[in-house]
Amino acid sequence: MASxxxxxxxxxxxxxxxxxxxxxxxxxxxxQTMATVALLLNVLVLPxxxxxxxxxxxxxxxxxxxxxxxxxxxxILIGIPIMIGVWIWGIVTGVQILKEAQx
Length: 103
Prior knowledge:
Radius of gyration: 25 Å
Strand content: under 5%
Number of strands: 0
Order of helices and strands: HHHH
Shape: elongated
Largest sheet: none
Structural class: mainly alpha
């Protein structure tokens, strides 16, 4: 009987490196689309969320925390002016991000 020798070939899986993903939060100048999204998020969704995405992380976190703290404080009425103030602050920050993108 003839014995068959099988040679095992090492197979390397060809892995292609994925292109580097651009960070969602950048410290540089935001582009026009990202600035518009930031403004809309600050106005329509949560004040601070658009600021974080637009690159103003510290301001955005402060706005978001103040907004979330104002929700339970609305039951004793002090939360209403805090919420309105934070919302206006978010709109102003969103407009500033938009102007920085246009410059």
